[in-house]
Amino acid sequence: MTGVRIDKWLWAARFFKTRALAKKAIEGGKVHYNGARVKTSKTVEPGALIKVPQGWDLWEVEVLAVSDQRRGAPEARELYRETPESQARRESETEKRRLANQAMSAPQGRPDKKQRREIQRFQRQRPE
């Protein structure tokens, strides 16, 4: 296979759960192919560099193979290789998020009656 549509490839490589979600991300300008925004009909070829957002992370992958069939995750990982810079950036951002979440304290429990009234009073206030 020489080329396949980018929305099908992203779906087959398991970056998106459905082709509709892949199409929405592409049309929203979130996916970049060799540094440029693309349309859903763009043909993916081996050796291309694709930037794909996934949750909080931004994956930068090199296309190794093309496929239009969705297979298991181990087979899907053989379609691409993540760049070392992307992997290092994702790991550092994950560590930053983990440390930021540790700094935040969780609530002690459910609010009591007085606290509930204060919350409701606060929610009723209108910004001026």
UniProtKB/TrEMBL annotation:
UniProt xrefs under Pfam families: S4
Superkingdom of the organism of origin: Bacteria
One annotated GO biological process: cellular response to heat
UniProt feature coiled coil, ranges: none
Domain RNA-binding S4 as annotated: residue spans: 4-71
Keyword Transferase: no
Keywords: DNA-binding, RNA-binding, Stress response
Stretch list, region Disordered: 73-128
Bias (Basic and acidic residues): 73-98, 110-128
One GO MF term attached to the UniProt entry: single-stranded RNA binding
Keyword S-adenosyl-L-methionine: no
Family: Belongs to the HSP15 family.
The protein's name: Heat shock protein 15
